[in-house]
C-alpha cells in the first residue's frame, strides 16, 4: 500500500497535545478526522514526535498508508480546507515503505523563544515564554555547553516519561539574543518527556543568577529530578524540524526559517 508523508504545522495553544485523547481535543484527532473525510476511509497517523499541551509544531512529520489516489496539491489544499485555522498541512510527498516518520528520523530540533522584559506582552500570549528578571546570556551559554553530548538526562525527565532509557545525545544547544528576545535551539537524536521544558527551567535559573553554570554538571551527575528547576511553560516551545536521511528527499527547511516564516520575523534580524 502506498505511503504518504505530510508536513504539519499547528498552534498548540488550542490543543491538548499531539496524541489522541478521549476528549478529541488533540492535533492527531483533528488531522485524522480530516484525513478520513478527505480519503473517505479511516486513516491512522504515525508522527515524528508527540508534543505536549500548549507546544507548537512547525515541522511535525507524519506518515499514513492508503491506496486512495489524490493529486499532490489536493493533499495540501484539500486537507487544509477540512482543518481548523490552528492546524495546516505544509507539504505532502509519496515515500517508500522503508520510511517511518518516527523511526527513520535522525534528529529533532526544538526552538524556545523567551521574551525578557519587565512587563508581559498580551500579543505574545501562548507564543513566547516570559521572564521578567534580567537574563545573562554568557552564563546560560556556559551552562549549555555542559549539556551537549551523550548524557543520562534523568534530572530533566518527567515522572510520567515512558522511555526505556534516560540516555540521550544532545547534538547542539545554542542560545542567541536579539533585543528582549532569547532564542534557544535544542537538537538531539530524541527527547525525553518534558526534557526541553525542564532544561529551559534550569538554564533560566542560571541566567537569572539563582545558580552557577557548573550546577548543570551537578544535576547530570546526581540524576535526580527533585534537585533541578521547575518545568518551564510550554508557551514558547516549537517542534521546528525533523531530519531524515537524504534518500527520502523530503523538504529541507531549517528550524529558524520555519519559525521566522510562520511568525513573520526577518531572518536578518537574528
What's the SSE blueprint?
Blueprint: E1 3-10, H1 27-39, E2 46-47, E3 56-65, H2 72-82, E4 87-95, E5 107-116, E6 129-131, H3 137-145, E7 149-152, E8 167-178, E9 181-188, H4 195-207, H5 215-222, E10 237-243, H6 255-263
Parallel strand pairs: 3-10, 5-6
Antiparallel strand pairs: 1-3, 1-4, 2-3, 5-9, 5-10, 7-8, 8-9
Pfam family, one: PseudoU_synth_1
Domain Pseudouridine synthase I TruA alpha/beta: 9-103, 143-245
Function: Formation of pseudouridine at positions 38, 39 and 40 in the anticodon stem and loop of transfer RNAs.
Q: Can you give a write-up of this model?
A:
Pfam families: PseudoU_synth_1 (PF01416). One of its GO terms (molecular function) is tRNA pseudouridine(38-40) synthase activity. It is an enzyme of class 5 (isomerase). With about 270 residues, the chain is an alpha+beta fold. It folds into two domains: about 5-105 and about 245-255, 2-Layer Sandwich (Alpha-Beta Plaits), CATH 3.30.70.580; about 105-240, Pseudouridine synthase I, catalytic domain, C-terminal subdomain (Alpha-Beta Plaits), CATH 3.30.70.660. The protein is built from six helices and ten strands. The chain has helices spanning about 25-40, 70-80, 135-145, 195-205, 215-220, 255-265, and strands spanning about 5-10, 45, 55-65, 85-95, 105-115, 130, 150, 165-180, 180-190, 235-245. Strands 1, 2, 3, 4, 5, 6, 7, 8, 9 and 10 form a ten-stranded mixed sheet that branches. β8 (about 165-180) and β9 form a beta hairpin. α3 (about 135-145) packs across α4. It is globular, with a radius of gyration of 19 Å.
Amino acid at each position: 500500500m502506498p505511503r504518504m508523508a505530510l508536513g504539519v504545522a499547528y498552534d498548540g495553544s488550542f490543543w491538548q497535545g499531539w496524541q489522541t485523547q478521549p476528549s478529541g481535543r488533540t492535533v492527531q484527532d483533528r488531522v485524522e478526522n480530516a484525513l478520513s473525510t478527505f480519503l473517505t476511509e479511516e486513516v491512522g497517523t504515525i508522527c515524528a514526535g508527540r508534543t505536549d499541551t500548549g507546544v507548537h509544531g512547525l515541522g511535525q512529520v507524519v506518515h499514513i498508508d492508503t491506496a486512495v489516489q489524490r493529486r499532490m496539491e489536493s493533499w495540501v489544499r484539500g486537507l487544509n480546507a477540512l482543518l481548523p485555522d490552528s492546524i495546516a498541512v505544509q507539504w505532502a510527498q509519496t515515500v517508500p515503505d522503508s520510511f517511518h516518520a518516527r523511526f527513520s528520523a535522525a534528529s529533532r530540533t526544538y526552538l524556545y523563544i523567551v521574551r525578557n522584559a519587565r512587563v508581559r506582552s498580551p500579543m505574545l500570549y501562548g507564543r513566547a515564554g516570559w521572564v521578567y528578571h534580567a537574563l545573562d546570556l554568557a552564563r546560560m551559554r556556559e551552562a549549555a555547553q555542559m549539556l551537549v553530548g551523550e548524557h543520562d538526562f534523568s534530572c530533566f525527565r518527567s515522572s510520567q516519561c515512558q522511555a526505556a532509557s534516560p540516555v540521550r545525545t544532545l547534538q547542539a544547544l545554542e542560545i542567541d539574543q536579539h533585543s528582549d528576545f532569547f532564542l534557544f535551539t535544542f537538537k538531539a537524536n530524541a527527547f525525553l518527556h518534558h526534557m526541553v521544558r525542564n532544561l529551559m527551567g534550569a538554564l533560566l535559573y542560571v541566567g537569572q543568577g539563582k545558580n552557577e553554570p557548573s550546577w548543570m554538571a551537578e544535576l547530570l551527575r546526581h540524576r535526580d529530578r527533585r534537585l533541578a528547576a521547575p518545568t518551564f511553560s510550554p508557551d514558547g516551545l516549537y517542534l521546528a524540524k525533523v531530519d531524515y536521511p537524504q534518500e527520502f528527499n523530503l523538504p529541507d527547511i531549517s528550524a529558524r526559517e520555519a519559525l521566522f516564516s510562520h511568525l513573520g520575523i526577518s531572518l536578518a534580524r537574528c
